[in-house]
Write a structure and sequence with these properties.
- The chain has about 250 residues and is of the alpha/beta class.
- The protein has one domain: Aldolase class I (TIM Barrel, Alpha-Beta Barrel), CATH 3.20.20.
- About 40% of the residues lie in helices and about 15% in strands.
- It contains eleven helices and eight strands.
- Helix 4 runs parallel beside helix 5.
- About 45% of the residues are buried.
Length: about 250
């Protein structure tokens, strides 16, 4: 890994090789997203909670760059277009992320190769989000391993994907993937214990971290939930210990 990528990766991953990323890029999908009405306020809350990085859209970086806390890693969500990698470099962010949900046979995934080359040229870490789904939009757990390996083979520096459903299956995903694997949080969960249990399983079975969104920024106390997840990701806290952060 060249100096540019290595220095930027240090802003995303701590010395233990783990990361907690708060995904806040849903507002770019043309929907009203509760919890993101005042993005800078939410960014400050998760930063105070100890998040390592945030995942945001280009407009957030352009508008709020001066106010974003200085120690917070910034990953910018971009289309599958290499031109956006140059924009990311000019904006000074620490990584870029593309999103794909669907069949692993989709031609759209071929665009990952040129994106990876552009990221290499500009020294920008590349997070590829690949979530295999069937024609009805349902997760295909058996394909998560192939999705993660595809991201690695096509040049991503780390991959974001779904938890396949069991610790054994996820440990196999990690074992077959030669880049760090972070897990998305998915739909809003009903109970704090569910969120923390998922986090604990991911970290205990080899995950490099979490990329949680709604389960943090839509929480009644985003700062406290961030702290609870930090304890699991970086301190190997138990679920019971992490719950104490939530009062």
């Amino acid at each position: 890994m060249d100096a540019g990528k290595a220095l930027r990766m240090k802003r995303i991953f701590r010395e233990d090789g783990k990361t907690l990323i708060i995904a806040m890029d849903r507002g770019g999908r043309g929907k009203d997203v509760p919890g993101l009405e005042r993005p800078l306020e939410t960014i400050r809350k998760v930063a105070e909670g100890g998040a390592d990085a945030i995942l945001v859209n280009p407009g957030i970086v352009m508008r709020f760059h001066e106010a974003i806390p200085r120690d917070l890693g910034i990953i910018m969500s971009i289309p599958m277009n290499p031109l956006y990698v140059e924009l990311a470099a000019r904006l000074g962010v620490h990584g870029v992320k593309t999103t794909f949900f669907g069949s692993l046979e989709d031609e759209e995934l071929r665009k990952l190769g040129p994106l990876a080359i552009a990221c290499q040229d500009w020294g920008i870490p590349f997070l590829a989000e690949i979530v295999p789904q069937d024609e009805n939009g349902r997760l295909e757990p058996q394909a998560v391993k192939a999705a993660a390996r595809m991201a690695a083979e096509l040049g991503a520096d780390f991959v974001k994907t779904a938890y396949p459903g069991s610790p054994q299956e996820f440990s196999e995903v990690v074992a077959k993937t030669f880049i760090p694997v972070v897990v998305l949080g998915g739909p809003k969960m009903d109970r704090d214990e569910e969120v923390l249990r998922t986090a604990k399983i991911v970290m205990e079975t080899g995950g490099a971290g979490l990329c949680f969104g709604r389960n943090v920024f839509q929480h009644r106390n985003p700062q406290a939930m961030t702290r609870a997840l930090v304890r699991i990701v970086h301190e190997k806290a138990s679920i019971e210990e992490a719950l104490k952060e939530l009062g």
